[in-house]
Here is the input.
Amino acid sequence: MVTSCSTSYSRPSWWTAAVAGTAGGIAAGGAVTIGLASYALRRMLTPERDRPDNIDILDIPDPHLIPTLPVAQEKVYEPTPARPYADIPTITLRTSIDCDVPGRYGLWLDNGAGHVRIGEILDRDDVTGTVTRELLGVDSGTLRVGTARWNGYYYGGNPISSLGLPYDEITVTGPVGDLPTWVIPGATTDDPTDSDTWAVMVHGRGALRAECLRAVPTVHRLGWTTLVPAYRNDPDSPESVDRRYALGLAEWADIDAALRYAVEQGARKIVLFGWSMGGAIVLQTLARSPWAAAVDDVVLDGPVVDWYDVMRHHIHIGRLPQSLAAVARRVLRSRVATSLVGVESPLDVTETDWIGRASELAHRILIIHSVADDFVPVGPSEQLALARPDLVTYVSWTEARHTKEWNTDPARWDQVVTEFLTSPR
Here is the structure.
């Protein structure tokens, strides 16, 4: 075994960051509160370009025992009681809020140049503060003791390097320019246009297209074509004028362009997938896009159903006055938002409240959301299902963190989604 090398990582809260270093109380509605709300909103809406390492790798196998991928060689290990994991390559990490969770995940190596896939937890040591997990394989780069960055997607490449599935890299022209997009044909053909059913997948805030790869095999087995577009302000995409996220209120136009492309290529039925903010983008697309009539079904994973609820949640965990949420909402939808927050035009988060807008929904929607989601609370998803039981199917997970339902139980995720997509209308 190779041993050595500290970093404790916690998921950022924009609202906690807004008051870091401040002392004393806050007078709600005053100039200080407006300033704090504006600062937090700016952090919330600004894409993160700097992604520092947040995981310490303390122990790895000898190099000749480290499994390598492609996926055709990936093994699923099943430890036995007699020999808990004697023959399983393992990796030991310093315990953190991310790496001490069940499921399959990834690690970015060397600032994203390399990638490793890791599996279930095999051992915890509370005394040393370490966790030992399965080492499922190295996609690229060199695994070594040191630091790495957590990858919640599990996959870290493109469709062929991650899944062994051929694909085309195209561009879809949207309002801000050419958007890089993966096109993956279904299992029965090499030609994407052979299928008249397409899935369009939308990743979440600050994520990459690779976030969507977990769902691609489900669609691929059904024989459908998959389209995975980037959208504005992604690292590989054109930036918006203000270089700010718009909570789905502008990004929907990029997905509208992807729908148009799919229809032009012969799609007659479209399934929209969305994760986290991608869910908010999907819901805006359904309401605004002229191509929404081509959409039959929708699958949302850990979606933002109401941005105001998300803001209140982060204010709560930041132990800040709840009145700060109302101030932030007023700032964001006022004309001063352009100067205080840096957005090109005001944003009205009430337009993202789909409990209040439930009567406008017209598509079948499957929502998968964990009650343990610590970033986007599950409450609005549950409420939307109660408000529209005729259209919305809600399936709960118990232990998964934000958008990690697949990671903790991929077989169940695949079954739930497949049954929904193939069930009679």
